[in-house]
Write a structure and sequence with these properties.
Blueprint: H1 2-7, E1 11-13, H2 24-34, E2 40-46, H3 55-58, E3 64-69, H4 79-98, E4 102-109, H5 119-131, E5 138-142, E6 157-161, H6 173-183, E7 190-193, E8 202-204, E9 209-211, H7 214-227, H8 231-238, E10 247-249, E11 252-255, E12 258-261, H9 262-268, E13 272-277, H10 281-289
């Protein structure tokens, strides 16, 4: 069924980050327990914690895909220096202890607001340095809203934050649709992070905010890339809140007014990469409860 292609390696596990905020060892234990599930992607870890990983604890689990959070970009003038320091630290750990047991998939960087005006210049300085670590590595910059067009041609991808631990960290459907519409015509890959614990949008009474659904966001992103949809139609997709709105079949996915073939999904998931989540159980259980996956 096409949901397998849609959901394959869709979730990078961020158990050490809020709201779960697990210590390293419990987070590793949970990640190990999820290994082998087709939805599981990489393990997210800050560069500064790489030295805390024990190669012995990773042996016997196959190759570990790692997604590293690089040093925050405080100012464009510091871009090269920060990347050089990260690369030195990462290369030292991989070369000395972890090179045989981990696969470095991505480095994700959060620029400060004052760095956004020259983000393209900063990315062009940093990306070649990080890419020295692995020919499979991709670099992503987290940007809220728009203004990320300068990443085009830099070799970097875009990371969009879809939520967090406070209501104001969740973009509205209109804001998120505008970001996806601006990203669609670009030739850069996309990741998302936070706030996507459920497949469908829903209201969180504790935070008093409407949270986005990852089926909606990924469907909207794929259609933004394939069809260059504008913000209005994308906002409508983000608002679909019933399981029957998403009809998976062996041929692909149907949703109101739009279709994605199995080949479309397979191809577009190469650029609409994954989302980071501190929970793997919540998305999996919700997908099962809504009938998108069979119970194990």
């Amino acid at each position: 069924m096409s949901q397998h292609a849609f959901l394959s390696r869709i979730l990078d596990y961020a158990g050490m980050f809020p709201p779960a905020a697990l210590a390293l060892e419990p987070a590793l234990e949970r990640y190990v327990s999820y290994r082998g599930h087709f939805m599981l992607g990489g393990f997210i870890l800050a560069v500064g914690r790489l030295g805390d990983l024990s190669a012995q604890s990773l042996f016997g689990q196959g190759e570990w895909p790692l997604v590293l959070l690089g040093s925050p970009l405080s100012h464009p003038a510091s871009a090269q220096r920060l990347a050089e320091a990260d690369v030195e630290a990462i290369a030292g750990e991989l070369g000395a202890r972890l090179g045989q047991v981990v696969s470095l998939e991505a480095v994700e960087i959060a620029p400060a607001p004052e760095a956004l005006a020259e983000l393209g210049q900063a990315a062009r300085a940093q990306v070649p340095l990080y890419e020295q670590l692995s020919d499979r590595l991709q670099v992503f910059y987290e940007v809220r809203g728009t203004g990320f067009e300068a990443l085009e041609g830099s070799g970097a991808g875009l990371k969009i934050r879809a939520g967090g631990v406070t209501a104001d960290s969740f973009p509205t459907a209109r804001e998120l649709a505008a970001s996806l519409a601006a990203w669609g015509p670009l030739s850069i890959p996309l990741k998302l992070t936070a706030g996507l614990h459920q497949p469908l949008p829903h209201y969180d009474p504790e935070l008093e905010v409407r949270q986005h659904g990852f089926l909606n966001v990924f469907s909207a992103a794929m259609l933004a890339r394939r069809d260059h949809l504008q913000a209005g139609p994308l906002q409508a997709i983000l608002g679909l809140d019933r399981p029957e709105h998403f009809r998976f079949s062996p041929a692909g996915l149907e949703l109101p007014g739009h279709q994605l073939s199995l080949q479309d999904i397979t191809t577009l998931r190469q650029v609409v990469k994954s989302f980071g989540s501190c929970s793997f159980d919540d998305p999996l259980q919700a997908l099962t409860a809504h009938g998108f996956l069979e119970a194990p």
